[in-house]
Amino acid sequence: MLANDSVIVINAGSSSIKFSMYSGAALDLTMRGKIENLYSGVAHFIAQDAADSVVGERHWRDGPLDHEGGMRFLIDFAQTHLDGHRVVAVGHRIVHGGVAHSRPQLLDAAVLDELQKLIPLAPLHLPHNLAPVRSVLAMAPHVPQIGCFDTAFHVGQPAAAQEFALPSNITDLGVRRYGFHGLSYEYIASVLPQAEPGLAHARVVAAHLGNGASMCAMDAGRSMASTMGFTAVDGLPMGTRCGALDPGVVLYLMQELGMDVAAVQKLMYQQSGLLGVSGISSDMRTLEQSDDPRARKAIDLMVYRIGRELGSLAAALGGLDALVFSGGIGENSVALRAAVCRDAAWLGVQLDADANAANPRGIARISKADSKVAVWVVPANEELMIARHALEVVEAA
Ligand code: ADP
C-alpha cells in the first residue's frame, strides 16, 4: 500500500449514500461525505477533507435522485477529486450475509446474485446496500469491491444463542437469530485491548446506541449473543423501532385491529421506539432537552430495557468484566450512561461521575478505578473496520 493508495468505503442506506476515503498503509481518513435525501425532496451532497474543510457540495433541485444517479455522481466526483490518490479497493457495508457469508469477500456478479437471494431477510436495507456495488461494477469494473457483512461477526455464536424455539423445518429455512451492528462490535473488540490489554480475554457487553440500537456479549473478542435477531427490529427500543415485542402483539394488531402487513411493518419500524413512546421525536437530544413527561418516559423505558438486556447478556457470558458505550447516544449522552450504570450497580458497575460528565472524545474509561466492571466509551467506527477488511482482502488476493 503506497502513501497515495486509497480505500473507499461505501455505506448506502435507504435514503443516503455515505462514503469515506482512507489512504496509505495507516489508513488515514482523507475524505468523507454523503448524499442525503435520495428519492424525495432536494438531494444534497457534501464532501469534507480530513481537516473538515468542504471540498464539494451540490443540491439536486430539479427532481429526485436515485442510488444509481447518486453513485454516477460520486464516481465522477471521485475521478476528478482524487488528487493523486489511486483507489485500490471499494469496501461496502452490507447488512446481511446470511449463514454463508461469514467473512469479508470480493464481490462479483455471481456473489451479487447470491446476496440478492437474501433480500427477503433484510428487505428494507439489503437492496440499497447492493445497488452501489452494481453501479461500481458497471462504471468502474476494474476496481476490486469487497463486501463486509453486519451479520458476519455473529456467525460463530453458540447454537443456543442463534436458534428460536421453532420446529426445525422453519429453522432450516434460515429463520434464526443473526444479529447486526457486527462491524461496530468487531471494531470495538479490536481497539479495546489496545486501550486496556487486560480486556483482550475479558467478558464484555457493548451497547451500540444510535438511531438503530443493539447490544452484544463478547467473550475474548468473539460474539456470544446479541439483542438483534432475525431482523434489526428485535432487542432494544430504538429511535423509531419498537425492539423486542411479544409476537402475540403482532397477531392482535392483525386479527383485532385489522392492520395489514404493511401497516404493522410501518408501526414497528417507523412509528415506535423513542418516537412512538414520546410522541415527540426519535432524537435523543430533543428528548433530553424536553420538559414533557412523555419524553422522560421514552428515555426511562430505553434505560430500563438496556438494563434488562445487560443482565441477560451478562448471564450468557457467565459474568461481566467490562461495559462499552458506543453510537451517537452511547458516545454523547452523559445522562443515559449515568442511568444505565446506576441500574447496573448490582453487577459491580461503579461509574466515575466526573469522567462520565467530561464526555470524552475518543476511547476512554469512565468507571472508578476500583469498579469491578470497567466502563468504556468507544466511538463507533464501522467505516475504518470496513477499510481494514477491504485492504486485507485485496492484499491477500
Ligand atoms: P445512526 O444509527 O443513524 O448512525 P447515530 O449513531 O449518529 O445514528 O446516533 C444518533 C442518535 O444519537 C440520535 O438519537 C441523537 O439524538 C443521539 N445523539 C447525538 N448527539 C447526542 C448528544 N450530545 N446527546 C444525546 N444524544 C445524542
TrEMBL record:
Its main location: cytoplasm. Pathway: Metabolic intermediate biosynthesis; acetyl-CoA biosynthesis; acetyl-CoA from acetate: step 1/2. It holds the Pfam family Acetate_kinase. The keyword Transport does not apply. The keyword Lipid biosynthesis does not apply. Substrate binds at residue 93. It comes from the Bacteria. It is found in: Cytoplasm. It catalyses: acetate + ATP = acetyl phosphate + ADP. Gene3D superfamilies: 3.30.420.40. One of its GO terms (cellular component) is cytosol. InterPro entries: Ac/propionate_kinase (IPR004372), Aliphatic_acid_kin_short-chain (IPR000890), Aliphatic_acid_kinase_CS (IPR023865), ATPase_NBD (IPR043129). Catalyzes the formation of acetyl phosphate from acetate and ATP. Can also catalyze the reverse reaction. Homodimer. PANTHER family: ACETATE KINASE (PTHR21060). This is Acetate kinase. It comes from Duganella aquatilis.
